[in-house]
Predict the 3D structure of the following.
Amino acid sequence: MTSSVYVLEYHLVNYRRTWRSSALSTLVLPLLTMLGFGLGVGAYVKSGVDGTAYLDWIVPGLIASTAAQTALGEATWPVLSSFEWLKVYFAQAAAPLRVTDILGGHLAFMMFRVLVSTIAFLLVAAAFGTLHSGWTLAVLPLSVLVGFSVAAPVVAYTASIRVDSYLAILFRFAVLPMTLFSGVFFPIEALPGPLRWLAWALPLSHGVDLTRAATLGLNPGVAGLWQALYLLAWCVTGWFLARWRFERRLVI
């Protein structure tokens, strides 16, 4: 058994003590976004998008975005805290645990949080009657793929900084544009040419497309396979970058 399991257990034990602080937002935020964007904005988009009611069209985008946002939240301040303030990683390295165990266990916990958030959103979406295909179950592994594709490179970034002001820069100039331009709220085709290419370069846009195909029962075709491989490439590249940065910080 890999020691990553014990690192995951550590994070789960901590989460068992603190889950109440996030439980309400995990259920309330999907409800508010459904009401605000799906029904509120949707009331002005009477024709829908591509023949699909706006609420049904936006929900999978919101699910993918929630998976990415949850992963980003776990890959930023908690990681920086484990390096700079609480020194958890250094204590784990002295246990001794390998860098791959420390990193793998924490990333596994991040994906657990992504799954919890996704399941909560799916329950709210089902209550609104916006899930129309048995392929909706594929959203669960898709959410993990999307979460990992953004979490791993952001963990590498977080492991490279010393102060949290750089995280504010990350959210302002990377995370916010990714959320706005990835097809969550409107089709990417509505963007000007250069921004359209930027959107397709972002991992979230491909996660949105695949999630939308799953909830609406659409066939993504060969393009869907390439999008999944593209997300996997982000995961693999992010993993190696994160491991390299962790080794620089933890291995003396």
